[in-house]
Amino acid sequence: MTAPRLYVDSADVDRVGRLLGAGVVHGVTTNPTILERSGRTAEDIPALYERWVGQGAREVFFQTWGGDTASFLRNAEGILALGDRVAVKVPATADGFAAASALVRDGASVLVTAVYSVGQALACASIGVQYIAPYLGRLRDAGVDGDALIARMQAACEGSATDVLAASLRSPEDIVGLREAGVPYFTAAPDVIEQLLFHDVSDSSAAEFDAAMARLGG
Ligand code: E4P
Questions:
Q1: CATH classification of 5-215, choosing from 2.60.40.10, 3.40.50.2020, 3.50.50.60, 3.20.20.70?
Q2: Residue 79's closest CA among 120, 102, 107, 49?
């Protein structure tokens, strides 16, 4: 099984910076909604890329936009010019699939996002995109058994160059459950990543060790 990786799904520079500084996330994923929520504009993208790479991000994802294939490709060009740690996200629409295919042929690192069916996952694997992002929380919101569906997507991608990078993960258990189905990569809000790292007994154990060391004169 591929080694797991955590990404932080946020453009909150303080919280992203702390997680990158701690070395607990592989990189940063964003989309236009996330940028807007943090009060960012399209003009901020180059500075965010530089900042996060400088803080140790091994991969940074920005999403292309425009709705039609030509616009997706034009905007992806600007994103890909940022540097060699960038990956471009493309939505799983008909025009998005055409853009993703062209970008893969050009050697870009591509993530197809908002993947909602096994058929779309299979098409992504056939095209050779590097990642697909299904949205667990939003699938559940729509009344779908997201865990089962994403497990089938994972199976559909087996043996291909495509990996599942699951998104819309709202609790540490969402991550652990998908991992048990073989999903390798996960992106989640800073809160969820922080909760994944935390256990109250770990903290009380650490406090006990420190108290003992203090008694030992340390
Ligand atoms: C992914 O690109 C989305 O930003 C994200 O995972 C959605 O999460 P939410 O459904 O919890 O808002």
A1: 3.20.20.70
A2: 49
